[in-house]
Hints:
Layout: H1 39-63, H2 68-76, H3 95-108, H4 110-129, H5 132-144, E1 166-170, E2 173-180, E3 191-197, E4 203-209, E5 215-218, E6 233-242, E7 246-248, H6 258-287, H7 304-336, H8 340-372, H9 384-393, H10 400-412
Antiparallel strand pairs: 1-2, 2-6, 3-4, 4-7, 5-6
Amino acid sequence: MGIIEQQPIDYTVHPRVNSSDPVPPRPRPQTPAHIITSDAEAIEIAQRLAAEFTAGAALRDREGLLPLAEIDAYSQSGLWGINVPKAYGGAGVSYRTLARVIAIIAAADSSIAQITQNHLSINGHIDLDGTEAQKREFFGWVLSGLRFGNAFSELNSKNVGTFETRVAFDGDEAVVNGEKFYTTGALLSHIIPVVALDDDEKSYLVFVGREAPGITVTNNWSSFGQRTTASGSVRIENVRVPKSRALPVLAFDRPTVAGPVSQIIQAAIDAGIARGAIDDAIAFIKTQSRPWIDSGKETAGEDPFTIAAIGDLKIRLHAAEALLDIAGEAIDAGLANATEDTIAEATVKTAEAKVLTTEIAILATNKLFELAGTRSTLAKHNLDRHWRNARAHTLHDPVRWKFFHVGNYYLNDLNPPRHAWS
């Protein structure tokens, strides 16, 4: 797995940010993806890839360039299949390990880490809700190197859990119509699982080929943060797939780890953003910042207030990462033995992690500039991407509700709700 070379930018073929132009599908892999076999191997590969992804992260953010070569290397590495169960050929790594993998990638480039989020969550849904035939087919796709995108949320619905996209069944086919927004990763995917409701308001994940007639994907994502996640729109017009590729979404009707799995990946991304920002702050202070005139010190790194502030950031980061580990262990316990109690505990522990990772991501990306000084704001460094990414990504679901559900659990013995944002 060699270092990805930075190629000259060809703006005539590269999908641009905030564009309404349809984007053609990416080619499917020519060779099968690597199969990871252990937790240790997953961590090792994540660290190797992170070193490669870091190099071009600032440029990709500045120019609005999607990480095309990076995503190909990422999915071919086998990391997109690490939560495929061992019974179906995957590594079946622990969710503690999975969270660490995502945090490692996010520290290098949080947009790349976020593109993986929905794919890994969908792997979990396949395991929880799929038939044996669906598991064999869908997990086979994953292990071959195919990437799942995301067509879940809608821009104009009443709330994030309300859907207008519909699926109808016509003989042996499922027919889907609708439009989705915040479709992170769909543009770079090979298969787009579309959330749709049938006439009885039952939810399905309909697995649609990215190249299917009636699928239009645009990169009309205009956020100031997470700029290169390909989180634009998907329009679905009379798209037909075999009925066998419609998977009922039942995981929230009973106690399962579906919600905590989705949430721990989000929390891991924020932890990674924080670590990347702190690492960049330390490097900048050591090499480019000047000591404040009142300190009487020769270097910025000798300033006692800067030293204390870095210590505070590291302590808060380590606390957040420790809670991520605890949450991962609780999810693993809930996966092994899903009961109301084990799933509630996994949900609460993950919510606790989400609170601390949100707080350290916002704090660290802000403190970077305070500690590194004015020159750290120069455009050539593009260090503001850390703050923009943290501010945008931590809005995924309101952390203020985490405090409420955690408090209700401990004070009033009320379990948190079961959905993808809890």
